[in-house]
Specification:
Blueprint lengths: L2 E4 L12 H19 L6 E4 L1 H18 L7 E5 L6 E5 L2 E5 H6 L3 H16 L2 H11 L3 H14 L3 H9 L2 H9 L3 H17 L5 H8 L14 H5 L4 H14 L7 H18 L2 H7 L7 H13 L3 H14 L4 H13 L3 H14 L4 H14 L2 H17 L4 H13 L3 H14 L3 H12 L7 H18 L1
Parallel strand pairs: 3-5
Antiparallel strand pairs: 1-2, 2-3, 4-5
Helix pairs in contact: 1-6, 1-24, 2-4, 2-9, 2-13, 4-9, 4-10, 5-8, 6-7, 6-8, 9-12, 10-12, 13-15, 14-15, 15-16, 16-17, 17-18, 17-19, 18-19, 19-20, 19-21, 20-21, 21-22, 22-23, 22-24, 23-24
Length: 461
C-alpha cells in the first residue's frame, strides 16, 4: 500500500488545461464527500496499485454490462471503518474500507459497485445536484460555506459551521433518493445478471443493514442514511434477484482479486498481531504469505517480512504487485538499492501502472545519485502523464525537477500538489513563481496559468 494521505476531494477532479472544469469538479467533489461522510470527518484516500487493479477487475464485467467505459472510471477506497459507498461524479465511485473488510464474497462487492454504477447510468447524480441547488435558506447556505472551507483545507472550521446546518441540508438532499435507490437496485441487478454475476450478492449486502433501521441515527452506518431501506424495497430487490439469478457460477478470477484486495487492506489497516492471529501459521497460500509479510513489516520485523516475500516471489515471479510490495517493504526499511531493483522489476511487468512508476521514482530519489536522480525524473514524468492527481507523486516530481536544476517545473509540480489538496492560495504562490521561470507558452506555463485561473474563480465564489 503505497500511501495513506489526506485528500478531501477526488483525484478525478482536475481535467488538464480546463481551469473552469477543474473548479467545478473541486466544488462538486468536496460537497458530495461531505454530504456522504458527515460534517465532522476529514477522510483520506487509500492509494494502492494492487487494490485499485483488483477493484477494476471486479468492476469490468459490471461496467461492460452497464455500457460504461472502464478506462474512464475510478473506484477508489476511503480509509473509514464504517460501511458506505457512493458516487461522486460520472467517473468516480468511493467505497469505504470498512465496507470491503466486512464483506465475505466478491459478488457482494460487485453488488455494491453495480448499484453505484446504476446511479451513474440513471443520471441520478445530476438530479441530486439540481435538488440541492434548489434548497433555500440558511441551512443550505451554511452547508455550502462549510464545504468551501473544507475544500480550502480548513476542515475543522468547516466542520464547526456544518454541525448546525448539515442535518437539514441532508434531509433536503437525501429526501429525493428513495425512488432512485429502488431504480438503482433493479438496474444494478440487471447489470449483474448480464455479466453472469450472482445478483444475490446485492441482496446479501443490503440485508446486513436491515437491523440498523431501529437504531439511533448516530449509531447507523452511513450506507443506511445514504441508501435508505424499506421492507418494500427489500422485497422488490429479492424478487429482481430471483428473476435474474440462478444462472451465474462463482468466478474464480473475481474471487481471487476480492481476496487479494480485502487481505491486503486488512493487513495494512488492522493491528498486525490481529492479522497474524487470523492467518494460520501453516497456511502457505499466496494471500497468507502476503498478509504475514505486511504484518511483520508493520511490527516491524523486516527479516521475517522479507522471508515471506521471498517465498511469495518464488510462487509468483511475474506478478508486478508482488514486486511492488517487496519494493515498498525494502524502501520503508531504508534498503534503497534493492528497493529500486524490486520496483524496476515491477515496472517491467506493469509499465502502465502509475502508482508503481511513482514508487520506482521514490526509490530512485532515495538513492540520490546523479544517475538515479535523472532516471527518477524520467519515471515520475511518465507517472504524472498516467495519473496527474497523486499529491505524493507530485511532491517527488518537484524534488526530481529541483535536483535537475529545473526550478520552474519544480514550482509547477508543487503548485499542482497544493491545488489538489485544496490549498489554492498556496498553489497560487508557487504558480506565480513558475510563471517567472518557465518559458511563456510552454506546457508548464499553461498548467501554472490554469491553477491561477482556478484560484481566481474560487475567490470570486
Amino acid at each position: 500500500m503505497e500511501a495513506l494521505f489526506q485528500r478531501r476531494v477526488p483525484r478525478s477532479m482536475v481535467p488538464a488545461s480546463r481551469a473552469g472544469a477543474w473548479l467545478l469538479r473541486l466544488g462538486l467533489g468536496a460537497l458530495l464527500l461531505a454530504l456522504a461522510l458527515g460534517p465532522a470527518r476529514s477522510q483520506s484516500l487509500i492509494r494502492d496499485a494492487e487494490i485499485e487493479h483488483a477493484l477494476r477487475e471486479l468492476t469490468r464485467p459490471i461496467a461492460n454490462a452497464a455500457g460504461i467505459n472502464t478506462d474512464t472510471l475510478d473506484i477508489l477506497v476511503i480509509n473509514d471503518s464504517s460501511m458506505n459507498a457512493f458516487v461522486v461524479d460520472a467517473q468516480t465511485v468511493m467505497i469505504h474500507s470498512g465496507l470491503i473488510l466486512r464483506l465475505d464474497r466478491a459478488e457482494e462487492l460487485q453488488g455494491v459497485i453495480a448499484h453505484e454504477l446504476a446511479h451513474i447510468t440513471g443520471g441520478h447524480l445530476t438530479r441530486r445536484m439540481a435538488n440541492l441547488r434548489g434548497a433555500r435558506g440558511a441551512a443550505a447556505m451554511g452547508l455550502l460555506m462549510s464545504m468551501a472551507m473544507v475544500a480550502g483545507g480548513n476542515a475543522e472550521a468547516g466542520a464547526g459551521l456544518a454541525m448546525g446546518t448539515a442535518s437539514s441540508a441532508q434531509r433536503v438532499f437525501f429526501g429525493h433518493t428513495r425512488a432512485e435507490e429502488s431504480s438503482a437496485d433493479q438496474a444494478g441487478v440487471r447489470f449483474m445478471a448480464h455479466a453472469d454475476v450472482d445478483p444475490q450478492g446485492m441482496v446479501d449486502v443490503l440485508d446486513r443493514f436491515r437491523g440498523q433501521e431501529a437504531l439511533n441515527v448516530a449509531r447507523q452506518d452511513p450506507y443506511l442514511r445514504t441508501h435508505p431501506l424499506s421492507a418494500e424495497r427489500m422485497r422488490a430487490l429479492k424478487g429482481y434477484a430471483a428473476a435474474y439469478g440462478g444462472r451465474a457460477a462463482q468466478d474464480p478470477h473475481a474471487a481471487e482479486w476480492f481476496a487479494r484486495a480485502k487481505g491486503k487492506l486488512g493487513a495494512f489497516l488492522q493491528n498486525p498481531r490481529h492479522t497474524l492471529r487470523q492467518v494460520d501459521k501453516g497456511d502457505g497460500s499466496d494471500i497468507a504469505l502476503m498478509r504475514r509479510a505486511v504484518a511483520y513489516h508493520r511490527m516491524p520485523d523486516t527479516g521475517r517480512a522479507l522471508a515471506e516475500m521471498n517465498r511469495l516471489e518464488t510462487r509468483r515471479p511475474n506478478d508486478p504487485y508482488v514486486q511492488e510490495l517487496k519494493g515498498q517493504i525494502l524502501l520503508e526499511s531504508r534498503q534503497f538499492a534493492p528497493a529500486a531493483q524490486a520496483y524496476g522489476r515491477a515496472v517491467g511487468l506493469a509499465p502502465k501502472e502509475p502508482l508503481i512508476l511513482a514508487g520506482q521514482g521514490r526509490a530512485l530519489l532515495a538513492l540520490d545519485t546523479p544517475a538515479a536522480n535523472r532516471q527518477a525524473l524520467d519515471v515520475l514524468k511518465r507517472a504524472r502523464v498516467r495519473d496527474p492527481y497523486d499529491p505524493r507523486m507530485l511532491r517527488d516530481l518537484a524534488l526530481a525537477y529541483a535536483r535537475a536544476g529545473d526550478n520552474g517545473m519544480a514550482s509547477v509540480a508543487t503548485a499542482e500538489r497544493y491545488a489538489l489538496m485544496g490549498r489554492l492560495d498556496t498553489a497560487s504562490v508557487h504558480a506565480n513563481r513558475a510563471l517567472g521561470l518557465v518559458p511563456r507558452g510552454a506546457p508548464g506555463w499553461l498548467r501554472a496559468q490554469d491553477i491561477l485561473a482556478a484560484a481566481e474563480q474560487a475567490r470570486k465564489r
